[in-house]
Amino acid sequence: MKYRFSGSMTPERREKLLRVLHQRQSNLAVVMENVQDPHNISAVMRTCDAVGIQDIYILTTKIPRHEKFGPKSSSSAAKWLTIHQFDDATACFEALRKKYARILTTHLSSDAVSLYDIDFTESVALVFGNEHSGVSEDIRALADGNFIIPQMGIIQSLNISVACAVSIYEAYRQKKAAGQYDQPSMSAERQTELLNEWGFKQEDPL
User: Fold this and answer.
1) How far apart are CA 1 and CA 117, in angstroms?
2) CA distance linking residue 138 with residue 30, whole number of Å
3) Record-annotated residues binding S-adenosyl-L-methionine (predicted)?
4) Which domains, and CATH codes, for the chain?
5) Which residues sit opposite 88 in a β-bridge?
6) Interval 38-72: pLDDT, tens
7) pLDDT of residue 206
8) Structure pTM?
9) 25, 83, 173 from 79: Cα distances, Å
């Protein structure tokens, strides 16, 4: 396929953006429930971009809708991601169910599985909760189960951005070992859509 860029861009920059797109993982997503600090959201976005996650879901049922995401913290990662914002949990999960086979929440419970027992080569969405109260009971009831990050300390909790980074880098490790970054996982239509959003103009059909 051939694309031209609307404006000045070096060939190196162009090739980097195309390579990034081809390594995006369409079967992995992050959901944040009522996360209050925009800097936490921005930090999560930056990590998601780093491991090839394109879709982020932001659910705000108990706090005002976020208008911006701290561009200094995210290093403008938000402009390269697809951000889905919801203020209704049912609508959010209906959208998730259409794309992901399993939805797991971070929650310390007797039935929680270890992060390292999750098969990230399959389709998974991970839900991270509020900084103070974690994932709500209502959201846990909508999900397929809970997972924990094994910890050896007294305080059994991590900052949300740290917890997310640990979790999705485990996903990266598994997916990389399985060769899932070696071929595009997105449809040609979605690739074209994102390329247009990023400033590319299609010259030849996919």
Assistant:
1) 39
2) 18
3) 106, 149, 158
4) 3-10+27-202 (3.40.1280.10)
5) none
6) 889 999 999 999 999 999 999 999 988 877 654 44
7) 39
8) 0.88
9) 17, 9, 25
